[in-house]
Amino acid sequence: MNLDTVTDVTDCNIDVSVETLYVESESDPDRNRFVFSYTVTIRNMGQTPARLLTRHWVIRDANGRVQEVQGDGVVGEQPHLKPGEGFQYTSGTMLETSMGTMGGSYLLITDGGNEFKAPIADFLLSAPRTLH
Hints:
Elements (H helix, E strand, L loop, with lengths): L13 E9 L11 E11 L5 E12 L4 E7 L7 E2 L4 E10 L3 E12 L4 E12 L6
Antiparallel strand pairs: 1-2, 2-6, 3-4, 3-5, 3-7, 7-8
């Protein structure tokens, strides 16, 4: 199975939106610990049912440190999305700086067995009073 192969996905349209929150109660700026939660909404806007198989995140902090996270599903699930259906979950990450970015992709498979990637555009992680 070649995860970079995208085939027969003309009817596949997965929309991914993300909302972030700085978790002050879990953060400790004096120790370079900045915790963020993010809520992801995945919606099948296409005509083809698909199951989310894996996730791939690229997390960058303001010092240029890059973390890659890959794994099966999201929050222990591999949601199956019929056309028009959505799935929402909340997770979190920690940075050593008060600002950074996350982005990546989900690998999905149609009911017909075709794999495709749904990109997740980079989004900003920023503690309050970080940006002017």
